[in-house]
Amino acid sequence: MKTIIASLVLILTSALAHANANMDQQSYCSNYSSMIKSIAAWRDQGMAPEKTLDLMRSVKGISLQEKKDAIHTVYFDKSLANSRGTEFGNQTRLQCLAEKPK
User: Fold this and answer.
1) What does UniProt give as the signal peptide span (predicted)?
2) Are 96 and 33 in contact (CB under 8 A)?
């Protein structure tokens, strides 16, 4: 659990630094955690990271670089290999909300 949170802190810090100014933190964190959860689900289904990025392009309020970083982290960070489901999405959202926007 601590390893998951530590891994997400890195991508969340970067993500919050670039959050869309028109989107409040609550909405941003909800979108971000849903995106992370979807990435993990597609990873578990065997989808290629490139295809996942194509599907993530429509997510609003999150930059292309943040999407690439999130996909890279979820797919290749060994500490997140078993992370999935609602609990994973909720952990990501709570961590995002705990971070202060920059």
Assistant:
1) 1-19
2) yes
Can you give the pLDDT at residue 15?
52
| CB within 8 Å of 73: residues ≥ 6 apart | 7, 8, 10, 11, 80
**Is the CB of residue 31 less than 8 Å from the CB of residue 61?**
yes
Amino acid type, 100: K
Q: What is the mean pLDDT of the chain?
A: 79
pLDDT tens digits, residue range 69-86? 999 989 998 888 888 777
The amino acid sitting at 6 is A
DSSP result, the chain: -HHHHHHHHHHHHHHHHT--TTS-HHHHHHHHHHHHHHHHHHHHTT--HHHHHHHHTT-TTS-HHHHHHHHHHHHH-GGGTT--HHHHHHHHHHHHHHSPP-
- Exposure string over 42-66, b if 16+ CB within 10 A, otherwise e: bbeeeeebeebbeebeebebbeeeb
